[in-house]
Amino acid sequence: MQTQTGTTQPGTRKFVSYASSWNTSIYDLTTANIPNYITDINLAFARPDTAYVKGSYAFDQAVAGFEFVEGKTGSTGQKKFTAQQAQDLRGNIAALKSRGTGVWVSVGGWDYSQGSQWSSFSAPRVVDLALDLGATGVDIDWESSTSNCNKLTADQFSCTKDGEIGGIINSLYNEIKARGASLKISIAGWSTGAYYVKGTPFEEGKVQWGSPFGGTMYSLVKNHGGKIDMINLMSYDAGDYYDPREGYESYRAIYNGPINMGMEIAPEGSGGAILELLAPAGTVYDADMLTGQNNVASPYYNVETMVKYMKNKARPSDGFMMWQLWKQRVHQPAPAGAATENSAGQYVCNNLPLAGSCAQTIPTLPKL
């Protein structure tokens, strides 16, 4: 298990937050609405098969994939960005970057990963979109539910869609390098995406059971990790038995770059787990891991335990990711007693710690 430690200084770790575009306006993406301890914002989601043309500034849903109210596909038809709206979106991104908050184009997500969109992935068009927006980088959120893995040893381990995701990262990396662009690449790492490799501490039966898509990111990260600037670990949506600490260790065993531990504000999309803020009394932050005992992991599924683990066991460059900035605004409110966007973010800011003002808050905004 990874035990490398180091002195943490504010500003050396990331706090990434996905910002969904549905029920949201481009005018919500302002420095006043986004606390300055959030180091990076991932705009969710762009289409993998986008037909975006450089210089068109067609940031609407039909072309780019974003679902901002200014460009949403709805019952009244497809709204198109006006020239002013396109300029204003780019201006808001520039203002966030000028403040020190990176802005990434996140491509994919669950809905854009269940059809044939990824088979038509166009790296040139995605790069055009990111450059026209003035983005910091491209986040690949490939969530295929049809990739099956053989669960063999590392030298024989493979999944049926290794070629697809490997080709996506390779083509994106090569396109960025060929243009001399300064764009970075991150990936959303599936919760159990590095599990179920026989002969490792993370083989089936040694880790807490979680998502059925175990191992789907293993070959990508192991073989192409040098092309990825950071991993945003989706350590959620995997039920009460999933342990985010084990998820982190499985990726750390095969990846040398920064890993951001993910937190989802409840209610979660699947699995029913509820992220709480504080640990139960007497909780030992690094206990009950990799034991082969498939017990409920709820005592360790809280922000306090995750922060203690990452602060003491992770690398100084590792941080956190949150799904998502507008969670209660665009979905249901968090259950009573659960962590919220603000309580989770401020706890990470104060205790990891992060640079910026931990007193700043995400305002309550209405659905649009």
UniProtKB/TrEMBL annotation:
GO terms for molecular function: chitin binding. Coiled coil: none annotated. It comes from the Bacteria. Residues 13-357 form the Chitinase II/V-like catalytic domain. InterPro entries: Chitinase_II/V-like_cat, GH, Glyco_hydro18_cat. One of its GO terms (biological process) is carbohydrate metabolic process. Pfam families: Glyco_hydro_18 (PF00704). This is Carbohydrate-binding protein. It comes from Paenibacillus swuensis.
